[in-house]
Amino acid sequence: MTSYRHHPDRIAALVQDDRVHRDLYLSEEIFALEQERLFANTWVFLGHASQVPEAGDFVTQEVAGRPLLMVRQPDGAVHVMYNRCAHKGTQLVTDESGNTGRFFRCPYHAWTYKLDGAPLGLPLKNGYEGTRLKACESGQGLSVVKHVKVYRDFVFVRLADTGPSFEDYFGEVLGAIDNMVDRSPEGKLTVGGGVLRNIVHCNWKMYLENINDTVHPMSTHESATKAAEALWEGHAPSDPKPMAMEQILPFGSGYEFFDRMGGRVFANGHSVLGVNFSIHSNYAQLPEYKAAMQAAHGAERAADILQRSPQNSVFYPSLSVKGSPQAIRVIRPLAADRTLIEAWSFRAAGAPALLFERAMSYNRLVFSPMSVVAHDDVHLFESIQQGLRAGGNEWVSLHRNFDAAELAQSTITTNGTNELLMRNQFRAWAKAMAAEAAA
Amino acid sequence: MNDPRDFVAHEAALLDERRFDDWLALFAEDGHYWVPLRGAAQADPFSHNSLAYEDRLLLQLRVDRLKSPRAHSQHPASHSQHVLQPSRIEEESDGEVRVRTPFLYVEARGESQILLSGTARHHLVRTASGWAIRQKRIDLLNAARALPAIQLFI
Ligand code: FES
Ligand SMILES: [Fe+2]
Protein backbone atom coordinates (compact mmCIF):
# COMPACT_ATOMS: atom_id res chain seq x y z
CA MET A 1 0.00 0.00 0.00
CA THR A 2 1.43 3.37 -0.98
CA SER A 3 1.31 5.92 1.79
CA TYR A 4 0.86 9.47 0.61
CA ARG A 5 0.46 11.49 3.77
CA HIS A 6 4.14 12.07 4.39
CA HIS A 7 5.28 11.85 0.78
CA PRO A 8 4.48 14.98 -1.20
CA ASP A 9 6.67 13.63 -4.01
CA ARG A 10 4.38 10.62 -4.40
CA ILE A 11 1.33 12.87 -4.54
CA ALA A 12 2.97 15.12 -7.12
CA ALA A 13 3.85 12.07 -9.24
CA LEU A 14 0.15 11.20 -9.62
CA VAL A 15 -0.36 14.20 -11.90
CA GLN A 16 1.78 14.21 -15.02
CA ASP A 17 1.65 16.72 -17.86
CA ASP A 18 -0.79 14.73 -19.95
CA ARG A 19 -2.11 11.94 -17.74
CA VAL A 20 -3.09 11.17 -14.15
CA HIS A 21 -2.75 8.08 -11.99
CA ARG A 22 -5.76 5.99 -10.97
CA ASP A 23 -5.00 6.36 -7.26
CA LEU A 24 -6.42 9.87 -7.54
CA TYR A 25 -9.84 8.29 -7.88
CA LEU A 26 -9.46 5.11 -5.84
CA SER A 27 -7.40 5.83 -2.76
CA GLU A 28 -9.24 6.53 0.51
CA GLU A 29 -6.03 8.00 1.87
CA ILE A 30 -5.92 10.50 -0.97
CA PHE A 31 -9.57 11.29 -0.27
CA ALA A 32 -8.84 12.02 3.39
CA LEU A 33 -5.92 14.24 2.38
CA GLU A 34 -8.14 16.10 -0.07
CA GLN A 35 -10.58 16.90 2.73
CA GLU A 36 -7.75 18.19 4.92
CA ARG A 37 -5.78 20.03 2.29
CA LEU A 38 -7.67 20.83 -0.89
CA PHE A 39 -11.16 21.43 0.49
CA ALA A 40 -9.98 23.19 3.62
CA ASN A 41 -7.44 25.42 1.89
CA THR A 42 -9.45 26.60 -1.09
CA TRP A 43 -12.69 28.58 -1.28
CA VAL A 44 -15.64 26.23 -1.23
CA PHE A 45 -19.25 27.13 -2.03
CA LEU A 46 -21.37 26.80 1.09
CA GLY A 47 -24.79 28.19 0.19
CA HIS A 48 -26.77 31.22 -0.91
CA ALA A 49 -27.70 34.15 1.27
CA SER A 50 -31.33 33.91 0.06
CA GLN A 51 -31.62 30.66 2.02
CA VAL A 52 -31.45 32.67 5.26
CA PRO A 53 -33.51 35.84 4.68
CA GLU A 54 -34.42 36.65 8.32
CA ALA A 55 -32.34 37.10 11.46
CA GLY A 56 -31.98 33.74 13.17
CA ASP A 57 -32.43 31.78 9.93
CA PHE A 58 -29.89 29.01 9.62
CA VAL A 59 -28.77 26.34 7.18
CA THR A 60 -26.60 23.39 8.11
CA GLN A 61 -24.07 22.09 5.62
CA GLU A 62 -20.92 19.97 5.74
CA VAL A 63 -17.77 21.17 4.06
CA ALA A 64 -14.65 19.01 4.00
CA GLY A 65 -16.29 16.65 6.48
CA ARG A 66 -16.94 19.46 9.00
CA PRO A 67 -20.51 20.26 10.06
CA LEU A 68 -21.10 24.01 9.55
CA LEU A 69 -23.88 26.41 10.33
CA MET A 70 -24.69 29.46 8.20
CA VAL A 71 -26.69 32.04 10.16
CA ARG A 72 -28.29 35.40 9.36
CA GLN A 73 -27.36 37.97 11.99
CA PRO A 74 -29.58 40.72 13.45
CA ASP A 75 -27.50 43.30 11.51
CA GLY A 76 -28.09 41.46 8.22
CA ALA A 77 -24.65 39.88 7.92
CA VAL A 78 -24.21 36.19 7.17
CA HIS A 79 -21.94 34.32 9.59
CA VAL A 80 -20.63 30.78 9.44
CA MET A 81 -19.85 28.75 12.55
CA TYR A 82 -18.91 25.19 13.30
CA ASN A 83 -22.04 23.29 14.27
CA ARG A 84 -20.51 22.05 17.51
CA CYS A 85 -21.46 22.99 21.03
CA ALA A 86 -18.57 24.50 23.00
CA HIS A 87 -19.35 22.14 25.89
CA LYS A 88 -19.18 18.59 24.55
CA GLY A 89 -19.60 18.89 20.81
CA THR A 90 -23.33 18.32 20.30
CA GLN A 91 -24.58 19.73 17.02
CA LEU A 92 -26.65 22.75 17.97
CA VAL A 93 -29.18 22.12 15.23
CA THR A 94 -29.77 19.01 13.20
CA ASP A 95 -32.50 20.27 10.88
CA GLU A 96 -31.36 21.15 7.39
CA SER A 97 -32.65 24.69 7.87
CA GLY A 98 -34.91 26.69 10.17
CA ASN A 99 -35.05 29.70 12.43
CA THR A 100 -33.49 29.56 15.88
CA GLY A 101 -35.03 32.79 17.21
CA ARG A 102 -32.66 35.11 19.05
CA PHE A 103 -30.15 32.55 20.27
CA PHE A 104 -29.01 28.94 19.94
CA ARG A 105 -29.72 26.62 22.83
CA CYS A 106 -27.87 23.34 22.96
CA PRO A 107 -30.31 20.45 23.37
CA TYR A 108 -27.91 18.54 25.67
CA HIS A 109 -27.15 20.74 28.73
CA ALA A 110 -28.79 23.96 27.58
CA TRP A 111 -25.75 26.17 27.09
CA THR A 112 -26.87 29.14 25.00
CA TYR A 113 -25.14 31.24 22.34
CA LYS A 114 -25.85 34.48 20.53
CA LEU A 115 -26.44 34.31 16.79
CA ASP A 116 -22.79 35.14 16.18
CA GLY A 117 -21.68 32.26 18.39
CA ALA A 118 -20.71 34.34 21.46
CA PRO A 119 -21.47 32.61 24.78
CA LEU A 120 -24.73 33.75 26.34
CA GLY A 121 -25.44 31.62 29.38
CA LEU A 122 -25.32 28.19 30.98
CA PRO A 123 -27.22 26.49 33.81
CA LEU A 124 -25.71 25.98 37.28
CA LYS A 125 -23.29 28.81 36.64
CA ASN A 126 -21.85 28.69 40.16
CA GLY A 127 -20.25 25.38 39.51
CA TYR A 128 -17.85 27.01 37.07
CA GLU A 129 -16.55 29.64 39.45
CA GLY A 130 -12.88 29.17 40.10
CA THR A 131 -12.49 26.82 37.13
CA ARG A 132 -10.52 27.49 33.97
CA LEU A 133 -13.62 27.43 31.73
CA LYS A 134 -13.45 31.12 30.80
CA ALA A 135 -9.85 30.77 29.69
CA CYS A 136 -10.40 27.52 27.77
CA GLU A 137 -11.74 27.20 24.22
CA SER A 138 -14.98 25.87 25.66
CA GLY A 139 -15.62 29.20 27.37
CA GLN A 140 -15.31 31.20 24.14
CA GLY A 141 -18.57 30.13 22.56
CA LEU A 142 -18.87 28.58 19.13
CA SER A 143 -15.88 28.33 16.84
CA VAL A 144 -16.33 30.72 14.00
CA VAL A 145 -15.25 30.25 10.39
CA LYS A 146 -13.14 33.36 9.95
CA HIS A 147 -12.85 33.38 6.20
CA VAL A 148 -16.30 33.80 4.74
CA LYS A 149 -17.00 35.68 1.53
CA VAL A 150 -20.50 36.62 0.42
CA TYR A 151 -20.10 37.42 -3.25
CA ARG A 152 -23.33 38.72 -4.77
CA ASP A 153 -25.15 36.49 -2.28
CA PHE A 154 -23.10 33.37 -3.08
CA VAL A 155 -21.50 32.30 0.20
CA PHE A 156 -18.03 30.75 0.14
CA VAL A 157 -15.79 29.62 2.99
CA ARG A 158 -12.11 28.94 3.38
CA LEU A 159 -11.61 26.83 6.48
CA ALA A 160 -7.83 27.15 6.72
CA ASP A 161 -6.40 30.15 8.53
CA THR A 162 -3.99 30.90 5.74
CA GLY A 163 -4.40 30.74 2.00
CA PRO A 164 -5.26 32.84 -1.02
CA SER A 165 -7.76 35.67 -0.76
CA PHE A 166 -11.16 35.08 -2.35
CA GLU A 167 -10.48 37.46 -5.24
CA ASP A 168 -7.01 36.08 -5.89
CA TYR A 169 -8.28 32.53 -5.79
CA PHE A 170 -11.17 32.89 -8.25
CA GLY A 171 -10.04 35.90 -10.30
CA GLU A 172 -11.70 36.27 -13.67
CA VAL A 173 -14.04 33.28 -13.37
CA LEU A 174 -16.13 35.41 -10.96
CA GLY A 175 -17.51 36.96 -14.15
CA ALA A 176 -19.68 33.85 -14.45
CA ILE A 177 -21.46 34.64 -11.18
CA ASP A 178 -21.71 38.28 -12.22
CA ASN A 179 -23.32 37.23 -15.48
CA MET A 180 -25.82 35.01 -13.73
CA VAL A 181 -26.80 37.71 -11.23
CA ASP A 182 -26.84 40.44 -13.89
CA ARG A 183 -29.44 38.40 -15.73
CA SER A 184 -31.81 39.68 -13.09
CA PRO A 185 -32.84 43.22 -14.05
CA GLU A 186 -32.81 43.96 -10.31
CA GLY A 187 -29.45 42.28 -9.73
CA LYS A 188 -30.91 39.75 -7.32
CA LEU A 189 -31.29 35.98 -7.31
CA THR A 190 -33.09 33.75 -4.87
CA VAL A 191 -32.82 30.00 -4.58
CA GLY A 192 -36.12 28.44 -5.59
CA GLY A 193 -37.85 25.16 -6.17
CA GLY A 194 -35.69 23.05 -3.90
CA VAL A 195 -32.46 21.17 -4.49
CA LEU A 196 -32.24 17.94 -6.47
CA ARG A 197 -29.82 15.61 -4.73
CA ASN A 198 -28.02 12.66 -6.29
CA ILE A 199 -25.75 10.05 -4.83
CA VAL A 200 -23.30 8.92 -7.49
CA HIS A 201 -20.92 6.06 -6.79
CA CYS A 202 -17.86 7.63 -8.29
CA ASN A 203 -15.02 9.91 -7.31
CA TRP A 204 -15.91 13.61 -7.26
CA LYS A 205 -13.10 14.54 -9.66
CA MET A 206 -14.58 12.33 -12.36
CA TYR A 207 -17.82 14.27 -12.13
CA LEU A 208 -16.00 17.58 -12.27
CA GLU A 209 -13.94 16.48 -15.27
CA ASN A 210 -17.11 15.53 -17.09
CA ILE A 211 -18.49 19.03 -16.60
CA ASN A 212 -15.68 20.08 -18.93
CA ASP A 213 -15.97 17.09 -21.27
CA THR A 214 -17.49 17.90 -24.65
CA VAL A 215 -16.35 14.79 -26.46
CA HIS A 216 -18.74 12.50 -24.61
CA PRO A 217 -22.25 13.85 -25.42
CA MET A 218 -22.34 12.39 -28.95
CA SER A 219 -21.68 8.86 -27.77
CA THR A 220 -22.88 8.94 -24.17
CA HIS A 221 -26.20 10.67 -24.77
CA GLU A 222 -27.10 9.03 -28.04
CA SER A 223 -29.98 7.07 -26.50
CA ALA A 224 -31.72 10.23 -25.27
CA THR A 225 -30.88 12.54 -28.16
CA LYS A 226 -31.78 10.05 -30.90
CA ALA A 227 -35.10 9.36 -29.21
CA ALA A 228 -35.76 13.10 -28.97
CA GLU A 229 -34.76 13.66 -32.60
CA ALA A 230 -37.03 10.87 -33.79
CA LEU A 231 -39.95 12.31 -31.84
CA TRP A 232 -39.29 15.78 -33.17
CA GLU A 233 -38.77 14.69 -36.77
CA GLY A 234 -41.10 16.32 -39.26
CA HIS A 235 -41.22 19.62 -37.39
CA ALA A 236 -39.82 22.65 -39.20
CA PRO A 237 -36.76 24.19 -37.51
CA SER A 238 -38.87 27.29 -36.90
CA ASP A 239 -41.66 25.42 -35.07
CA PRO A 240 -41.85 26.49 -31.44
CA LYS A 241 -40.34 23.68 -29.41
CA PRO A 242 -41.67 22.45 -26.10
CA MET A 243 -39.15 23.47 -23.43
CA ALA A 244 -38.02 19.88 -22.91
CA MET A 245 -37.15 19.55 -26.61
CA GLU A 246 -35.41 22.92 -26.61
CA GLN A 247 -33.24 21.67 -23.77
CA ILE A 248 -32.58 18.06 -24.79
CA LEU A 249 -32.01 18.28 -28.55
CA PRO A 250 -28.77 20.36 -28.37
CA PHE A 251 -27.08 17.50 -26.48
CA GLY A 252 -27.03 15.72 -29.83
CA SER A 253 -24.86 18.40 -31.49
CA GLY A 254 -21.82 17.10 -33.35
CA TYR A 255 -18.14 17.16 -32.39
CA GLU A 256 -17.61 20.20 -34.54
CA PHE A 257 -20.20 22.21 -32.59
CA PHE A 258 -18.57 21.41 -29.27
CA ASP A 259 -15.11 22.08 -30.62
CA ARG A 260 -16.07 25.52 -31.92
CA MET A 261 -17.82 26.55 -28.71
CA GLY A 262 -14.38 27.12 -27.21
CA GLY A 263 -13.07 26.94 -23.68
CA ARG A 264 -10.92 28.99 -21.36
CA VAL A 265 -8.85 27.99 -18.37
CA PHE A 266 -7.70 30.14 -15.49
CA ALA A 267 -5.21 29.70 -12.65
CA ASN A 268 -6.28 27.47 -9.72
CA GLY A 269 -8.32 24.99 -11.77
CA HIS A 270 -11.20 27.22 -12.86
CA SER A 271 -12.56 27.23 -16.38
CA VAL A 272 -15.31 28.36 -18.69
CA LEU A 273 -16.62 26.00 -21.35
CA GLY A 274 -18.52 27.55 -24.23
CA VAL A 275 -16.93 30.98 -24.54
CA ASN A 276 -18.31 31.44 -28.07
CA PHE A 277 -21.72 29.78 -27.74
CA SER A 278 -23.15 26.66 -26.16
CA ILE A 279 -26.07 24.27 -26.02
CA HIS A 280 -27.88 27.04 -24.10
CA SER A 281 -27.45 29.76 -26.74
CA ASN A 282 -30.59 29.15 -28.73
CA TYR A 283 -33.36 29.24 -26.18
CA ALA A 284 -36.30 31.33 -27.41
CA GLN A 285 -35.85 35.06 -26.85
CA LEU A 286 -38.35 36.88 -24.65
CA PRO A 287 -39.03 40.45 -25.84
CA GLU A 288 -40.41 41.79 -22.55
CA TYR A 289 -37.42 40.36 -20.66
CA LYS A 290 -35.02 41.92 -23.13
CA ALA A 291 -36.75 45.25 -22.63
CA ALA A 292 -36.47 44.98 -18.84
CA MET A 293 -32.76 44.14 -19.17
CA GLN A 294 -32.18 47.12 -21.47
CA ALA A 295 -33.96 49.41 -19.03
CA ALA A 296 -31.77 48.12 -16.21
CA HIS A 297 -28.38 47.89 -17.92
CA GLY A 298 -28.57 49.89 -21.16
CA ALA A 299 -28.91 48.28 -24.58
CA GLU A 300 -25.28 47.41 -25.16
CA ARG A 301 -24.58 45.91 -21.75
CA ALA A 302 -27.90 44.01 -21.80
CA ALA A 303 -27.01 42.44 -25.15
CA ASP A 304 -23.61 41.57 -23.79
CA ILE A 305 -25.03 39.84 -20.71
CA LEU A 306 -27.69 37.92 -22.64
CA GLN A 307 -25.47 36.65 -25.44
CA ARG A 308 -23.09 35.10 -22.90
CA SER A 309 -24.33 31.63 -22.13
CA PRO A 310 -21.44 29.27 -21.44
CA GLN A 311 -22.18 25.60 -21.00
CA ASN A 312 -20.46 25.50 -17.62
CA SER A 313 -18.21 27.68 -15.55
CA VAL A 314 -16.20 25.71 -13.02
CA PHE A 315 -15.32 27.30 -9.70
CA TYR A 316 -12.77 24.68 -8.71
CA PRO A 317 -13.21 22.44 -6.76
CA SER A 318 -16.88 22.39 -5.90
CA LEU A 319 -19.16 24.61 -7.97
CA SER A 320 -20.37 24.71 -11.56
CA VAL A 321 -22.49 27.59 -12.80
CA LYS A 322 -24.88 27.91 -15.74
CA GLY A 323 -25.91 31.54 -16.25
CA SER A 324 -28.57 30.38 -18.71
CA PRO A 325 -30.55 28.43 -17.55
CA GLN A 326 -30.05 29.83 -14.06
CA ALA A 327 -28.77 26.74 -12.39
CA ILE A 328 -25.76 25.59 -10.44
CA ARG A 329 -24.36 22.24 -9.50
CA VAL A 330 -22.57 21.74 -6.22
CA ILE A 331 -20.16 18.85 -5.85
CA ARG A 332 -19.91 17.51 -2.31
CA PRO A 333 -17.49 14.59 -1.97
CA LEU A 334 -18.51 11.90 0.53
CA ALA A 335 -15.86 9.21 0.02
CA ALA A 336 -13.34 8.22 -2.64
CA ASP A 337 -16.13 6.39 -4.45
CA ARG A 338 -19.19 8.36 -3.40
CA THR A 339 -20.24 11.89 -4.31
CA LEU A 340 -23.28 14.00 -3.58
CA ILE A 341 -24.30 16.15 -6.53
CA GLU A 342 -26.80 18.93 -5.94
CA ALA A 343 -28.67 20.87 -8.62
CA TRP A 344 -30.06 24.26 -7.58
CA SER A 345 -32.42 26.54 -9.50
CA PHE A 346 -32.64 30.31 -9.13
CA ARG A 347 -35.35 32.92 -9.55
CA ALA A 348 -34.10 36.18 -11.01
CA ALA A 349 -35.87 39.24 -9.56
CA GLY A 350 -37.58 41.26 -12.27
CA ALA A 351 -37.33 38.50 -14.87
CA PRO A 352 -40.30 36.59 -16.31
CA ALA A 353 -41.39 33.39 -14.59
CA LEU A 354 -40.38 31.48 -17.70
CA LEU A 355 -36.70 31.84 -16.76
CA PHE A 356 -37.29 30.07 -13.47
CA GLU A 357 -39.29 27.40 -15.29
CA ARG A 358 -36.32 26.89 -17.59
CA ALA A 359 -33.98 26.44 -14.65
CA MET A 360 -36.28 23.94 -12.97
CA SER A 361 -37.02 22.07 -16.18
CA TYR A 362 -33.34 21.83 -17.08
CA ASN A 363 -32.41 20.51 -13.67
CA ARG A 364 -35.27 18.04 -13.74
CA LEU A 365 -34.46 16.69 -17.19
CA VAL A 366 -30.70 16.66 -16.85
CA PHE A 367 -29.71 16.50 -13.16
CA SER A 368 -32.57 14.79 -11.31
CA PRO A 369 -32.09 11.28 -9.92
CA MET A 370 -34.90 10.52 -12.40
CA SER A 371 -33.25 12.46 -15.23
CA VAL A 372 -33.84 11.58 -18.87
CA VAL A 373 -30.27 12.45 -19.85
CA ALA A 374 -28.01 11.71 -16.88
CA HIS A 375 -28.58 7.98 -16.46
CA ASP A 376 -26.04 7.28 -19.14
CA ASP A 377 -23.51 9.68 -17.58
CA VAL A 378 -23.95 8.24 -14.10
CA HIS A 379 -23.65 4.69 -15.38
CA LEU A 380 -20.37 5.57 -17.07
CA PHE A 381 -18.92 7.33 -14.01
CA GLU A 382 -19.73 4.28 -11.89
CA SER A 383 -18.29 2.10 -14.60
CA ILE A 384 -15.03 4.07 -14.58
CA GLN A 385 -14.83 3.73 -10.82
CA GLN A 386 -14.91 -0.06 -11.26
CA GLY A 387 -12.84 -0.16 -14.45
CA LEU A 388 -9.90 1.68 -12.91
CA ARG A 389 -9.42 -1.22 -10.49
CA ALA A 390 -8.21 -3.26 -13.44
CA GLY A 391 -4.46 -3.64 -13.42
CA GLY A 392 -2.28 -3.28 -16.45
CA ASN A 393 -2.73 0.35 -17.36
CA GLU A 394 -2.75 2.45 -14.19
CA TRP A 395 -3.09 5.76 -16.02
CA VAL A 396 -5.95 7.93 -17.21
CA SER A 397 -5.26 9.71 -20.49
CA LEU A 398 -5.68 13.47 -20.76
CA HIS A 399 -3.56 13.84 -23.89
CA ARG A 400 -6.06 15.48 -26.20
CA ASN A 401 -4.55 18.69 -27.65
CA PHE A 402 -1.73 18.68 -25.09
CA ASP A 403 0.80 21.38 -25.86
CA ALA A 404 3.87 21.86 -23.67
CA ALA A 405 3.44 25.63 -23.94
CA GLU A 406 0.31 25.41 -21.79
CA LEU A 407 2.46 24.61 -18.76
CA ALA A 408 3.83 28.13 -18.68
CA GLN A 409 0.53 30.04 -18.99
CA SER A 410 -2.30 30.47 -16.53
CA THR A 411 -5.10 31.87 -18.71
CA ILE A 412 -5.57 30.15 -22.07
CA THR A 413 -8.43 30.25 -24.55
CA THR A 414 -8.70 27.14 -26.66
CA ASN A 415 -10.96 24.81 -28.65
CA GLY A 416 -13.93 23.31 -26.83
CA THR A 417 -12.79 19.69 -26.99
CA ASN A 418 -9.33 20.30 -25.57
CA GLU A 419 -8.68 18.19 -22.47
CA LEU A 420 -6.70 21.16 -21.19
CA LEU A 421 -9.74 22.07 -19.10
CA MET A 422 -9.26 18.82 -17.18
CA ARG A 423 -5.47 18.98 -17.05
CA ASN A 424 -5.90 22.43 -15.57
CA GLN A 425 -8.03 20.98 -12.75
CA PHE A 426 -5.39 18.40 -11.91
CA ARG A 427 -2.57 20.93 -11.93
CA ALA A 428 -4.53 22.93 -9.36
CA TRP A 429 -5.15 19.73 -7.43
CA ALA A 430 -1.46 18.87 -7.31
CA LYS A 431 -0.56 22.39 -6.24
CA ALA A 432 -3.07 22.47 -3.38
CA MET A 433 -2.22 18.97 -2.18
CA ALA A 434 1.54 19.56 -2.21
CA ALA A 435 1.38 23.03 -0.66
CA GLU A 436 0.16 21.79 2.70
CA ALA A 437 2.50 18.83 2.78
CA ALA A 438 5.44 21.15 2.33
CA ALA A 439 4.30 23.46 5.13
CA MET B 1 -61.66 -3.69 -15.60
CA ASN B 2 -64.29 -1.51 -14.10
CA ASP B 3 -62.91 -1.28 -10.59
CA PRO B 4 -60.24 1.46 -10.58
CA ARG B 5 -58.34 -0.49 -7.93
CA ASP B 6 -57.82 -3.31 -10.43
CA PHE B 7 -56.65 -0.73 -12.94
CA VAL B 8 -53.97 0.50 -10.52
CA ALA B 9 -52.69 -3.04 -9.94
CA HIS B 10 -52.66 -3.69 -13.68
CA GLU B 11 -50.77 -0.46 -14.33
CA ALA B 12 -48.00 -1.46 -11.90
CA ALA B 13 -47.83 -4.97 -13.33
CA LEU B 14 -47.24 -3.59 -16.84
CA LEU B 15 -44.23 -1.65 -15.53
CA ASP B 16 -42.83 -4.66 -13.72
CA GLU B 17 -43.19 -6.69 -16.93
CA ARG B 18 -41.37 -3.91 -18.82
CA ARG B 19 -44.36 -3.52 -21.15
CA PHE B 20 -43.69 0.21 -21.41
CA ASP B 21 -45.66 0.84 -24.62
CA ASP B 22 -48.76 -0.78 -23.13
CA TRP B 23 -48.17 1.22 -19.97
CA LEU B 24 -47.91 4.51 -21.83
CA ALA B 25 -51.12 3.75 -23.69
CA LEU B 26 -52.94 3.93 -20.34
CA PHE B 27 -52.33 7.68 -20.15
CA ALA B 28 -54.90 10.18 -21.39
CA GLU B 29 -53.75 12.61 -24.10
CA ASP B 30 -53.22 15.27 -21.44
CA GLY B 31 -51.90 12.73 -18.92
CA HIS B 32 -48.95 13.48 -16.62
CA TYR B 33 -46.57 11.47 -14.51
CA TRP B 34 -45.44 13.45 -11.48
CA VAL B 35 -42.94 12.81 -8.69
CA PRO B 36 -42.85 15.97 -6.54
CA LEU B 37 -39.59 16.86 -4.81
CA ARG B 38 -41.41 17.68 -1.57
CA GLY B 39 -43.46 14.49 -1.67
CA ALA B 40 -46.95 14.70 -0.18
CA ALA B 41 -46.28 18.25 1.05
CA GLN B 42 -46.08 19.71 -2.45
CA ALA B 43 -49.05 21.63 -3.82
CA ASP B 44 -48.19 21.93 -7.49
CA PRO B 45 -45.45 21.15 -10.02
CA PHE B 46 -44.69 24.81 -10.86
CA SER B 47 -43.69 26.66 -7.69
CA HIS B 48 -41.35 23.88 -6.58
CA ASN B 49 -39.28 21.45 -8.60
CA SER B 50 -39.99 17.76 -9.04
CA LEU B 51 -37.92 14.64 -9.50
CA ALA B 52 -40.05 14.12 -12.60
CA TYR B 53 -42.97 15.96 -14.14
CA GLU B 54 -43.65 14.59 -17.58
CA ASP B 55 -46.30 14.78 -20.24
CA ARG B 56 -46.88 12.10 -22.85
CA LEU B 57 -44.21 13.49 -25.15
CA LEU B 58 -41.52 13.14 -22.50
CA LEU B 59 -42.78 9.76 -21.35
CA GLN B 60 -42.65 8.60 -24.95
CA LEU B 61 -39.07 9.84 -25.13
CA ARG B 62 -38.19 7.83 -22.04
CA VAL B 63 -39.85 4.69 -23.35
CA ASP B 64 -38.15 5.05 -26.74
CA ARG B 65 -34.81 5.68 -25.08
CA LEU B 66 -35.13 2.50 -23.03
CA LYS B 67 -35.43 0.54 -26.29
CA SER B 68 -32.17 1.92 -27.67
CA PRO B 69 -29.20 -0.45 -27.54
CA ARG B 70 -27.18 2.72 -26.78
CA ALA B 71 -29.00 3.28 -23.49
CA HIS B 72 -25.72 2.46 -21.74
CA SER B 73 -27.19 2.50 -18.28
CA GLN B 74 -29.42 -0.40 -19.27
CA HIS B 75 -26.52 -2.83 -19.61
CA PRO B 76 -27.53 -4.76 -17.61
CA ALA B 77 -31.18 -3.81 -17.74
CA SER B 78 -33.11 -2.58 -14.71
CA HIS B 79 -36.14 -4.44 -13.41
CA SER B 80 -38.76 -3.25 -11.02
CA GLN B 81 -41.14 -4.74 -8.49
CA HIS B 82 -44.06 -2.76 -7.15
CA VAL B 83 -45.36 -4.08 -3.83
CA LEU B 84 -48.75 -2.43 -3.46
CA GLN B 85 -50.89 -2.08 -0.39
CA PRO B 86 -54.63 -2.26 -1.02
CA SER B 87 -55.80 0.79 -2.99
CA ARG B 88 -58.34 3.11 -1.47
CA ILE B 89 -60.77 5.27 -3.40
CA GLU B 90 -60.40 8.85 -2.20
CA GLU B 91 -62.93 10.59 -4.39
CA GLU B 92 -65.36 9.57 -7.04
CA SER B 93 -67.47 11.71 -9.31
CA ASP B 94 -68.92 11.66 -12.77
CA GLY B 95 -66.48 9.60 -14.79
CA GLU B 96 -63.50 10.48 -12.59
CA VAL B 97 -61.90 8.80 -9.67
CA ARG B 98 -58.93 9.40 -7.37
CA VAL B 99 -57.22 6.38 -5.89
CA ARG B 100 -54.41 6.19 -3.36
CA THR B 101 -52.10 3.25 -3.06
CA PRO B 102 -49.23 3.02 -0.56
CA PHE B 103 -46.34 1.01 -2.00
CA LEU B 104 -42.83 -0.28 -1.78
CA TYR B 105 -40.83 -0.03 -4.98
CA VAL B 106 -37.74 -2.10 -5.69
CA GLU B 107 -35.53 -1.37 -8.66
CA ALA B 108 -32.78 -3.88 -9.32
CA ARG B 109 -29.91 -3.73 -11.74
CA GLY B 110 -26.85 -5.95 -11.72
CA GLU B 111 -25.56 -6.24 -8.17
CA SER B 112 -27.46 -3.26 -6.86
CA GLN B 113 -30.98 -2.81 -5.66
CA ILE B 114 -32.78 0.29 -4.46
CA LEU B 115 -35.85 0.44 -2.26
CA LEU B 116 -38.27 3.34 -2.28
CA SER B 117 -41.56 3.79 -0.55
CA GLY B 118 -44.46 6.19 -0.67
CA THR B 119 -47.98 6.61 -1.91
CA ALA B 120 -49.16 6.56 -5.52
CA ARG B 121 -52.13 8.76 -6.27
CA HIS B 122 -53.96 8.08 -9.50
CA HIS B 123 -56.35 10.53 -11.02
CA LEU B 124 -58.31 8.46 -13.55
CA VAL B 125 -60.84 9.50 -16.13
CA ARG B 126 -63.40 7.28 -17.81
CA THR B 127 -62.99 6.91 -21.59
CA ALA B 128 -64.78 4.79 -24.21
CA SER B 129 -62.17 2.08 -23.74
CA GLY B 130 -62.02 2.15 -19.94
CA TRP B 131 -60.02 4.14 -17.42
CA ALA B 132 -57.20 6.44 -18.49
CA ILE B 133 -54.59 8.20 -16.37
CA ARG B 134 -54.91 11.96 -16.17
CA GLN B 135 -52.22 12.06 -13.51
CA LYS B 136 -50.11 9.54 -11.70
CA ARG B 137 -48.55 11.23 -8.73
CA ILE B 138 -45.91 9.53 -6.62
CA ASP B 139 -45.36 10.94 -3.14
CA LEU B 140 -42.05 9.47 -2.04
CA LEU B 141 -40.85 9.33 1.52
CA ASN B 142 -37.71 11.48 1.67
CA ALA B 143 -38.06 12.67 -1.90
CA ALA B 144 -35.75 15.63 -1.30
CA ARG B 145 -32.95 13.55 0.22
CA ALA B 146 -30.06 12.33 -1.85
CA LEU B 147 -31.15 9.47 -4.09
CA PRO B 148 -29.31 7.14 -6.42
CA ALA B 149 -30.37 6.95 -10.07
CA ILE B 150 -33.97 5.78 -10.49
CA GLN B 151 -34.13 4.49 -14.04
CA LEU B 152 -37.57 3.05 -14.59
CA PHE B 153 -41.01 4.24 -13.53
CA ILE B 154 -42.09 4.17 -9.90
S1 FES C 1 -23.00 19.57 24.95
FE1 FES C 1 -23.98 21.41 24.56
S2 FES C 1 -24.54 22.03 26.51
FE2 FES C 1 -23.51 20.23 26.92
FE1 LIG D 1 -23.12 14.05 -20.05
Description:
The complex is a heterodimer of chains A (439) and B (154). The radius of gyration of chain A is 23 Å and the shape is globular. Chain A has 15 helices and 20 strands. By secondary structure, chain A is of the alpha+beta class. Chain A has helices spanning 8-12, 23-26, 28-41, 166-170, 174-182, 204-211, 217-220, 222-232, 243-248, 255-261, 287-297, 299-307, 353-367, 374-387, 420-438, and strands spanning 19-21, 44-48, 57-63, 66-72, 78-82, 97-99, 103-105, 112-114, 119-121, 147-151, 154-158, 189-200, 263-265, 271-273, 312-315, 319-322, 327-335, 338-348, 395-397, 412-414. In chain A, strands 12-18-17-16-15-14-13-20 form an eight-stranded antiparallel beta sheet, sandwiched between helices. The model of chain A has no long low-confidence stretch (mean pLDDT 96). In chain B, strands 1, 2, 3, 4, 5, 6 and 7 form a seven-stranded mixed beta sheet that branches. In chain B, a hairpin with a 2-residue loop joins β4 and β5. Helix content of chain B is 19%, strand content 44%. At the A-B interface, β12, α8, α9, α13 and α14 of A face β2 and α3 of B. Bound molecules: FE2/S2 (inorganic) cluster and fe (ii) ion. Fe (ii) ion (FE2) binds at residues 216-217, 220-221, 377 of chain A.
